[in-house]
Amino acid sequence: MLVIGEVHTGLLQNSGEISESTCRQVLGLMAGESVRVSRRPIVHALSPERLTGVDCALPAASRSRIRGVGTVVSRCAVTGGRVAQGSSYVRVVRSETDRRLPWSHYLSRPGVVEVLGKAKAADLAEGFTGDPAPGCLDLGAVSGRFLDLVQASPLLDRRAPFKIPRTSLRWVAETGEPSIRFTLHTEQERTLRLTHPGPFTPAVVDLCEDLATHDWLLTSLLVIVERARIGATPGAQAVARLAPAIDHLMHLWMPAARVEEWLTPFWESLERRPGFTRQWRSLVDRVRDQVAMNTLALLSATAEAGRR
Predict the structure, then answer these.
(1) Which of 126, 135, 123, 125 is nearest to 64 (CA)?
(2) Which InterPro entries does the record match to this protein (predicted)?
(3) What contacts 27, CB < 8 A, 6 or more positions away?
(4) How far is residue 297's CA from residue 299's CA, in Å, rounded to a whole number?
(5) Which residues does residue 167 pair with via DSSP β-bridges, in sequence order?
(6) How big is the chain by its Cα radius of gyration, in Å?
(7) Is a pLDDT exceeding 70 seen at residue 308?
(8) How far is residue 179 CA from its own chain's centroid?
(9) Contact assessment for residue 161 and residue 247, using Cβ atoms and an 8 Å cutoff
(10) Do 108 and 39 contact (CB within 8 A), yes or no?
């Protein structure tokens, strides 16, 4: 089994949190298809899936010319009325023939890309999570285009309370002994290698999207804290710069809340190293300490003014 995917995550382009009904409208991109919404423990809306036909080279670490034909599954989600995601993935399988078949064949197998000719799963996995050659299958472009479509909804006022870059997570899932490896490449790019016993299920996609959400939240909070320049600017000014984190981000942290139980050990492994929640709590404590110190300073100044 080899499944590859890419998730783009960013701030929903709206001045405030959108309601559940607005989420349904924003994500209702296909007539006749319903948006799935869960309310516990946090509102999460998921669009209907879209298919994109592809006939192109597949990324390979060996730079071999490997042709793949099939369909990419894409979907978009909004979490907490604040965080938007575009996600795409394909299951890569060996074609039973070395020639291209009619599109009706590929449309009957949604989310499957068939390899024409010989290819090794390890070569494709390394190629996708490494530095894909130009002209190869670009799941990031598909995910980004889908997310752009949602962000362009006329129901959004496009007055985001702060600017923060999107992040991208390229992931590969394979069959084997359970393991997970998360790698930061740049400030916006990450990769994930996951192996687990048994066949592929959509629950693996849920895990990757959940990880991408929380990685973006952590990255965004870190950026906001850095921008506040705590200790280098007056307390009131630093707290004002931290306000977006308090108003829009800090209540969204719920790792593995939508991950199936059999996959939670993978999240637990990431909690040990690199320790997502440990770093999140440290940053949240720092934000709250700054608010508390500024409040005490204001109360002290008010009391001093009253004695004069």
Answers:
(1) 123
(2) SCO2521-like
(3) 35, 45, 46, 47, 76, 77, 78, 150
(4) 5
(5) 9
(6) 22
(7) no
(8) 20
(9) yes
(10) no
- pLDDT tens per residue, range 24-70: 999 997 766 889 999 989 999 999 999 999 999 999 999 899 999 99
Rounded to 5 degrees, φ, ψ at 171 are -130, 155
117-158 tens-digit pLDDT: 889 999 999 999 988 888 899 999 999 999 999 999 999 999
Hey, what's the torsion of the CAs at 16, 20, 26, 30, to 10 degrees?
Answer: 170
- The terminus-to-terminus CA distance of the chain in angstroms comes to 76
Distances (CA, A) of 175 to 118, 122, 193: 19, 11, 11
pTM above 0.90?
A: yes
Q: Which helix (H) or strand (E) holds 104?
A: helix 103-107
SS3 189: strand
Q: What pLDDT is stored for residue 31 in this prediction?
A: 66
Q: Average pLDDT in the 275-287 region?
A: 96
3-state SS of 289-303 is HHHHHHHHHHHHHHH
Between helix 264-272 and helix 202-228 the angle, nearest 10°, is 30
Residue 267, phi then psi, degrees to nearest 5: -65, -40
pLDDT in the model for residue 170? 97
Cα–Cα–Cα angle for 197, 199, 204, rounded to 5 degrees: 85
